[in-house]
Amino acid sequence: MNTTSPDHPAFALDAYKIIAKGEYAYAVEGDRPQCPQCQGSGYARVNIDGVITMGRCRCMMLPDRIALFNKAGIPSRYANTTFVSFAQDKNGQLKDLDPAAIRALGHCSQFVDQYQTAVENKGMVLYGEVGRGKTHLMIAMLRELVFRHGVAVRFVEFARLLSMLKEGYSSGRSDAGILGELATVPVLAVDELGKGRLTDWELTIIDEVISRRYNAMGCTLATSNYTPGEPTGAAPPNLATSTQLNQTLGDRVGDRVYSRLVQLVDFVQVEGKDHRAIVSSSV
Ligand SMILES: [Zn+2]
């Protein structure tokens, strides 16, 4: 029988803080009293589906989650990025958010609430214009997935992803190494999907990552400045990154990747006020 109160501070899951250190954000553990169940050894009698056995003590959940966060590759600039900081300023005042931004926040928060480990979870592509908070929302989801659900996540910028894959291929560790990790991590979050001049070779390796995630039933999150849509042929992906060309996400990533994405994710628009439109209509 577990005689230790579930509320004992040794089991606190919020005794951590996030700091920016160099390129990435890191979680560090705060003070907790010694665990009354394992006396700090990390091993204790645990009840798994009604069977009492020796196992990893519940007080290790926090350090385990901290370790997951520290492997996530969250950039330093997003160290303090949360759902709360999307809606409130530093003084705790509610920001003047557009209803569309509030809806997007709701979708993302619901996604985290409904996420289930050990089953396939549909992913999400947050799309919309630059500066509307897409990356902010995606990082906030990652943070909650780690600290609320204990899920392994990986954040990577699209351009960085391409260069990592290139390096992997040229050093001959493509399959077992970086590509394997990106293909199998439970939640992969890709920032700025479709950005850059994409060569055929790059499109091929993106295709491979997405196909392997599809087969591994991994959850894929992404942000994109491009509107979801089948390829229109407006401009080839290797021409330029410009939303002025009216390229769809399908134009950017190609037909095969786009059709996989449609099966893997929901598309959620992140929009804010168009201040120019408001000014011109009030004149
Ligand atoms: Zn313990």
Which descriptors apply to this entry?
283 residues, alpha/beta, Rossmann fold, 2 domains, five-stranded parallel sheet, two-stranded antiparallel sheet, 10 helices, globular
Give a concise summary.
This protein has 283 residues and is an alpha/beta fold.
Bound small molecules, which ones? zinc ion
Which descriptor suits the 3D outline? globular
Mean pLDDT: 86
CATH superfamily of the largest domain: P-loop containing nucleotide triphosphate hydrolases
N-to-C series of helices and strands: EEEEHHHEHEHHEHEHHEH
CATH architecture of the largest domain: 3-Layer(aba) Sandwich
Q: From the alpha carbons, calculate the radius of gyration and give it in angstroms.
A: 21 Å
Largest sheet: 5 strands, parallel
Number of H/I helices: 10
Q: According to CATH, what is the class of the largest domain?
A: Alpha Beta
Helix content: 25-40%
- Per the CATH scheme, the topology name of the largest domain is Rossmann fold
Distance between the termini: 72 Å
Number of domains: 2
Structural class: alpha/beta
Number of strands: 9
Low-confidence stretches: 274-283
Question: What topology, given as strand order, has the largest sheet?
Answer: 6-7-8-5-9
Strand content: 15-25%
Topology:
Layout: E1 16-21, E2 24-29, E3 43-48, E4 51-56, H1 61-70, H2 83-87, H3 99-114, E5 123-127, H4 134-149, E6 153-157, H5 158-170, H6 178-184, E7 187-191, H7 200-216, E8 219-224, H8 249-253, H9 255-264, E9 265-269, H10 275-282
Parallel strand pairs: 5-8, 5-9, 6-7, 7-8
Antiparallel strand pairs: 1-2, 3-4
Helix pairs in contact: 3-4, 6-7, 7-9
